Amino acid sequence: MKYRNIMKHKQMAIAFLAITAFAVGCKPSAEPAGDQDPNATAEQFDKVKQETQEAAQAMKDYAYTQKAEFVAAMQGQLDVINRDLDQLAAKIETSTDAAKAEAKPKLQALREQTAKLTKQLDAAKNATESTWGDIKTGFQKGYSELKDGFNQARQWVSDKIAP
């Protein structure tokens, strides 16, 4: 959910920056068009270009500066999944030996995915601006796969083991 909010803020900020750059570039001159100095026009263009580059860099920084919030939110999600995995494991322990044997590899696979995501989250904490996008995308993909696997395991437990 926070990721969608970040994307909405990015889109709004980019639109604002584009409008601002356009408005600055189209600002009416105090001099009539025929008397305008070509060097002044070039300087104005360079100024708009510089402002646009700074705005683009600020947007890139904004996404990168959200790293701490992203890491905290994802750590919270991993904590919830770990707690839920512990509850599933406890429920499985009360089941038959056959159900335990069948559930054990599924549970182990989820624990391994969680450990891998924890490592990815540690990498996200140490990400540089240039690596942030790839690390964030990789983590989100892994988290989505873990969440799907967890939901399948939960469904399996509810189907095989009485509540």
Please write out the topology.
Blueprint: H1 2-25, H2 38-65, H3 67-93, H4 97-125, H5 129-160
**How much helical structure, as a percent, in the residues?**
over 70%
Low-confidence stretches: 15-34
Number of strands: 0
Number of domains: 2
Q: What radius of gyration results from the CA coordinates? A: 26 Å
Provide the succession of SSEs.
HHHHH
What fraction strand?
under 5%
Average pLDDT number: 75
Largest β-sheet summary? none
Which class best fits the helix and strand makeup? mainly alpha
Q: What's the shape?
A: rod-shaped
Q: Count of helical segments?
A: 5
- Rounded to the nearest angstrom, the distance between the terminal CA atoms is 31 Å
Please provide a written account of the structure:
This protein is an all-alpha fold and 163 residues long. The chain folds into two domains: 2-65; 67-160. Helix content is 86%, strand content 0%. The protein contains five helices and no strands. Helix 1 (2-25) runs antiparallel to helix 2 and helix 3 (67-93) runs parallel beside helix 5. The longest helix has 32 residues, at 129-160. The protein is rod-shaped. The chain starts with a helix and ends with a helix.
